[in-house]
Amino acid sequence: MDAGIIVYSKPGCVQCTATTRALEARKLSYDVVDLTQDPAAMDRVTRLGYRQAPVVIAGEKHWAGFRPDLIANLP
Fold it and tell me: Which of 3, 34, 43, 69 has the fewest C-beta atoms lying within 10 Å of its C-beta?
């Protein structure tokens, strides 16, 4: 997996879909974790201070929402 990218997502989330499409367009590998199905994942992103999906964790970097500017800077 490139840089250990994890996308914490929710069903029907437009920003989540835009994020995964942008990662695919850059041919970056990632894992998706459904926040509605994984209480530990929800706890993790909440502890990081996030309240919206998606939450992307890529190595030491993390952010919430669709951020094409940050995706463009991933290795």
Answer: 69
**CA-CA distance, 41 to 57, in Å (whole number)?**
12
Q: What is the DSSP string of 8-19?
A: EE-TT-HHHHHH
CA distance 54 to 68: 12
Question: Where do the structural domains in the chain lie, given as residue ranges?
Answer: 3-62
Q: What mean pLDDT do residues 24-39 have? A: 96
Closest CA to 21 of 7, 34, 11: 7
User: Contact, 54 vs 7, CB < 8 A?
Assistant: yes
Burial of 34 (0-12, 13-18, 19+ CB in 10 A): middle
Query: What pTM did the predictor assign?
Result: 0.92
CATH fold of 3-62: Glutaredoxin (3.40.30)
